[in-house]
Write a sequence for this structure.
C-alpha cells in the first residue's frame, strides 16, 4: 500500500524555538496533504490542508503565521511550528491520499514536547 | 463545524466476543466513511472504508452504514487482546478531501 513518511518521530525543544516537521509520500504523488494535531486522549483535529504550489488552507482557529506550511513538490510537505510554546506540545500527524476518495494514509506522527 | 460523535468508552469485552462500536455524524451529505485503529502513541491505521448503505465485511470486521440515520458502526468478531486500541470513526467533508474524526472509542479485550 501507499506509504507516507514523516520525521522526526519526536522532538524536544526549548520555548521560543522553531521546529520543522517533514511529510513525504514515498510511492505516489500527492497534490494535497493534511496536517492533524492530537492532544492526549483526544481525537485528531485537522489543522490545515497543504496544497502543492499554492497556499495552505487553514482550519478555523489555527494560526497560519504560527504553523507555516510549505508544499513545494508533489511528494513533500513541511510544517514549521514557529516560536513554539509548551501549549504547542502535541502529536502532529500528516496524511495524504493518492486520489480523491482514495484511502487516507498517515505518517508515523511527530511527538513535539516544548519545554 | 461538522461533527462526528463516538462514545469514548472504554468498551470492555471478553476475548472471543463481538465488539460493537458506534458512530453518528451530522453532515447529511457525507459520502465516505472510515474506521481507523490507533494504538497509543502511534498514528491511525485504516481498518475499513464504506461508501454505501448496508454491511461490508472484511475478515473479522464488519462495517455497517445507515445514511438515513446518519449512523455507521464497526463490529469486530472473535475479539482478541491485540484488538485493544482506540477506534476512530472518520467522515468526509462535503465536496472536499478532508476527513473529520470522532473522538474515538477505547476498546479493551480481556483474556
Amino acid at each position: 500500500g501507499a506509504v507516507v513518511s514523516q520525521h522526526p518521530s519526536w522532538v524536544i525543544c526549548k520555548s521560543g524555538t522553531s521546529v520543522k516537521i517533514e511529510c513525504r509520500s514515498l510511492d505516489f504523488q500527492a497534490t494535497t496533504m493534511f496536517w492533524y494535531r492530537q492532544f492526549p486522549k483526544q481525537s485528531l483535529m485537522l489543522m490545515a490542508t497543504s496544497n502543492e504550489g499554492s497556499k495552505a488552507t487553514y482550519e478555523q482557529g489555527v494560526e497560519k503565521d504560527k504553523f507555516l506550511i510549505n508544499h513545494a513538490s508533489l511528494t513533500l510537505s513541511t510544517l514549521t511550528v514557529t516560536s513554539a510554546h509548551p501549549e504547542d506540545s502535541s502529536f502532529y500527524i500528516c496524511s495524504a491520499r493518492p486520489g480523491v476518495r482514495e484511502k487516507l494514509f498517515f505518517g508515523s506522527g511527530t511527538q513535539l514536547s516544548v519545554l | 463545524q461538522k461533527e462526528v460523535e463516538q462514545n469514548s468508552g472504554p468498551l470492555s469485552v471478553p476475548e472471543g466476543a463481538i465488539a460493537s462500536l458506534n458512530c453518528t455524524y451530522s453532515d447529511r451529505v457525507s459520502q465516505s466513511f472510515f474506521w481507523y485503529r490507533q494504538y497509543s502513541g502511534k498514528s491511525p491505521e485504516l481498518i475499513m472504508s464504506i461508501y454505501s448503505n448496508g454491511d461490508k465485511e472484511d475478515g473479522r470486521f464488519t462495517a455497517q452504514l445507515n445514511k438515513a440515520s446518519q449512523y455507521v458502526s464497526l463490529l469486530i468478531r472473535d475479539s482478541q487482546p491485540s484488538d485493544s486500541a482506540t477506534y476512530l470513526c472518520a467522515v468526509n467533508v462535503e465536496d472536499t478531501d478532508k476527513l473529520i474524526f470522532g473522538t474515538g472509542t477505547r476498546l479493551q479485550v480481556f483474556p
About this structure: The longest strand of chain A covers residues 19-25. The radius of gyration of chain A is 13 Å. The CA atoms of residues 2 and 55 of chain A lie 25 Å apart. Chain A is about 0% helix and 50% strand.
